[in-house]
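tool_call: predict_structure(chain=1)
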Amino acid sequence: MQIASNDEICPDDDLVKTFLSFSDKDYTVINTCKPVGDAVEDYAVEDYDQSTKLKMSFVLGVLATINKAKSREHAQHVICHAASTMLFDNKIQFLYKDW
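tool_result:
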């Protein structure tokens, strides 16, 4: 169980769903290594392997969390718990100093 932004207890799955709930119109990925002449739309997220998709989603989630967080502490909390859950299957815990 993790603490959500509104101080309610929520499962890790809910925290990750919230972390990944951002508009793909506001946050997107562009492949800068595409062959010359290929359109950006030719590279859909589905074209990437699972590891790459996870990394892209995580970075976009971080950007969205920073922009919509109520405070720096809230962003730190959400990002750390999402990283632990998404990237390390809760086997790694991230700690940060409260400034």
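agent: Residues 29 and 69 are 21 Å apart (CA to CA). Proceeding to next step.
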